[in-house]
Each structure stands twice: as C-alpha cells, then as structure tokens.
Amino acid sequence: MPELHIACHAWAYNxxxxxxxxxxxxxxxxxxxxxxxxxxxxxxxxxxxxQAEAERILTLLAAFDLQIADLYLLLPHINxxxxxxxxxxxxxFQRLIxxxxxxxxxxxxxxxxxxxxDGPAHxxxxxxxxxxxxxxxIEETDLRLSFEPHMDSVAQRPEQALLLLEAxxxxxxxxxxxxxxxxxxxxxxxxxxxxxxAHVHVRQARRGQLQTxxxxxxxxxxxxxEDLQQANYRGALTVKYMTTFGWHGMQEISITRETVRxxxxxxxxxxxxQNHADVP
Length: 280
Fold this sequence. Notes:
With 280 residues, the chain is α/β, with parallel strands linked by helices. The protein has helices at 18-27, 43-48, 50-63, 83-103, 120-137, 158-167, 177-181, 187-190, 221-230, 255-278, and strands at 5-9, 32-36, 67-73, 107-110, 144-147, 171-176, 197-202, 236-239. It has an eight-stranded parallel β-barrel with strand order 1-2-3-4-5-6-7-8, surrounded by six helices. α3 packs across α4 and α4 runs parallel beside α5. The longest helix is centred in the C-terminal third of the chain and has 24 residues, at 255-278. The mean pLDDT is 96.
C-alpha cells in the first residue's frame, strides 16, 4: 500500500507572506503543501502569466523541499443567477488551467457553487452545467477535479454531494469531514462518499463549531483514516486549520499547536493502517 502523504494547507498562515507561510509549514516537518486562492495566490495574475507565476511558486517550494499536494480555486459564483457573473468565474477557471498544469498539482479543488439568493433548487440546478463544463475543460490534462461539500454550498450534505457526482461524470470529492461534523452528520451518512474521494482536508470540529481545539473535537481521525484505507484512498491528508475565526463557529485556536497535534495523530493512524496492510 502506498504511503498516504500528510500535507498542510497554506491557508493556515494566510496572515503571513507566502514565503513565510511555506517556510513555517516546512519547519513543522511537512513535505507537502496545499495552496489556494487568497493572499498567497493572485488568480488573475496566475491566469495572465501562468508559466511565470508557476515557476515563481515552484522555486519557492523547492527552497523549502516542499511539493504541491492540491490547488484550491475559490470560484463560488459558477452557479450565479446572473449569466455574466457565472461566465466570469467559469472563464477564469479555464484560463487558470495552464497555471495548474505548470504548477504540477495533482488536482484542483473547487466549491460546487454556493447557495444563491433564488434558493437551493435553482442554485443546485445551475451548478450541474457549470461543473460539466469545468470537467470538460480539463479533459486534455492529467488533472483531477474535485469539489468540496461545504457549508453555504449547494452540497452541504452527503446526499447532495452524491447527486452532483451522479450528474457530473468525472467529478470527484475533496472531503472535509469538519463540515459534516459541524452539522451533526454522522459517519454512516458519510461512508457512501468515500469511494469518490480524491483529496482530504483534516481539522477538528464539533457540532456548531467548524473548527475547534483537538481535545474538544468529535472527529475520530483514526477511524477516518481506517475508513479511507478501506475505500482504497491513495491521496493526501491535508491538515487545514484556518484563520476565518467565527465563520460557522470556527474557534480562535493556536494554528500551529493544533496543526502539530493533528499531524501527529494522522501519523499514528497512517502507521496503524500501513502495519495492518503489511500483515499477510
């Protein structure tokens, strides 16, 4: 069984310049990093100068012996009621594909579209053709495209995510268990998603709190890794604490302390499933 890579999302250090963020991540013992839209990545600059921007980032990562695990592109209005707004986000995605290829990311994570003012049914209905177009746009590349079922999106619950997967062949899931834990969604409801998972985000959460300290969380990380192993998951496990304190009850925690504690539990879980896999 190939070893599961443990990564850290650079969003944990959005308050630092990219060089300091990836330097901190490297010093914490990570060899893989997720990057995403925001302070560390000007997506319009990347779309306009894909090769140059990719080379700049790759040079920086190489200096800290880091490899890219995933690229998260925040394009929440792919399902906007306004056709011009939809087209702006979909066009930007298409123009970012050369950047993603040059960066060497195994895949791209996106939102499936957020809940729009005209309600969940219309929002979900518009997401399907948008996602079909996005999958088609990467057909000539080796990239995988996965969406994150998250709060505020059209796929807040596992059953909604499964509907999108059925409607959009070639699409996969980036699983962030915390979004389900915060809603009180239990393991048996999540298990049907695991065969579709291509990337994983990990942090502690509990009902009503999308982020919390490790000792207060209800996400069973050992069980999660075991479930992923049973589903033959071969991607990365990305520790993803965030600085958006207050969003859906996200607690203000010590990012570095909780990142290290979660990293260590994932290492233990990885070693456990590896040992079981090696037993004849």
